[in-house]
Write a structure and sequence with these properties.
By secondary structure, the chain is an alpha+beta fold. It contains three helices and two strands. It has a single domain, classed as Orthogonal Bundle (Arc Repressor Mutant, subunit A), CATH 1.10.10. Helix 2 packs across helix 3.
Length: 75
């Protein structure tokens, strides 16, 4: 997955506040799991929120940091 696809991953994860696994991301974005995993490892704002047991294997649930808006300048 190219760096340009980081935006698609970021936007999708922002829609799913509970996060998504690599498999769920790959399915929704129609990309292969290896590409998704590689992209997530390069994204500074992506993190593993928790682990879930799926089909007798542990899967990381990924989320992204949603930055706060800039504080308005005082009058």
């Amino acid at each position: 997955m190219h760096k340009s696809n980081h935006h698609a991953i970021r936007m999708l994860l922002q829609q799913y506040h509970d996060g998504l696994t690599v498999s769920e991301l790959a399915e929704r974005l129609e990309k292969d799991r290896a590409s998704i995993s590689q992209a997530l490892s390069l994204m500074a704002d992506a993190y593993i929120d928790r682990w879930t047991l799926r089909r007798k294997q542990w899967a990381a649930v990924w989320c992204v940091i949603v930055p706060p808006q800039n504080c308005p300048k005082p009058n």
